[in-house]
Amino acid sequence: MNISKDNWLLVWSASNEPVNVHNVVRCFRGDFFRVIGGTPPKKASSSGIVTVVDYDNVNDSDRYSFYPSAFDMKWIEV
After folding, report:
1. Number of C-beta neighbours around residue 46 at 10 A
2. What tens-digit pLDDT sequence spans the chain (78 residues)?
3. Closest C-alpha to 53, from 68, 41, 39, 37
4. Any idea what the Cα angle at residue 17 is, between residues 56 and 25, rounded to 5°?
5. Are 18 and 9 within 8 A, CB to CB?
6. Bridge partner residues of 24 (DSSP)
7. Is 21 within 8 Å of 4 (Cβ atoms)?
8. Are 52 and 66 in contact (CB under 8 A)?
9. 72, 11 in Cβ contact below 8 A?
10. How far apart are CA 55 and CA 44, in angstroms?
């Protein structure tokens, strides 16, 4: 399932392919997470947020928010 909201879609920066819920990602620090959602930008100067949980977290508790660039992602208008 793609991550989209309010005519925005979360994509990989390099390919513009959609990011899917539960994709495993590695941040710039080397830590692994699972993507569970996000919030698109509210204005042109914003980059939005990506919401993740620890890779081995089975109940999606302890959520973290990162800028999309931490995972080489971006929000695009669709």
Report:
1. 12
2. 999 999 999 999 999 999 999 999 998 889 899 999 999 999 888 999 999 999 887 776 789 999 999 999 999 999
3. 37
4. 20
5. yes
6. 34
7. no
8. yes
9. no
10. 31
Residue 56: both structure tokens together? 């081995």
Angle, CA 29 vertex, CA 37 and CA 53 arms, to 5°: 30
pTM for the predicted model, two decimal places:
0.90
Residue 31: alpha-carbon gap to chain centroid: 14
- The 3-state secondary structure of the chain reads CECEECCEEEEECCCCCECECCCEEECCCCCEEEEEEEECCCCCCCCCEEEEEECCCCCCCCCEEECHHHHCEEEEEC
Residue 75 one-letter amino acid: W
Task: Indicate the residue type of 52.
Answer: V
Domains in the chain: boundaries: 4-77
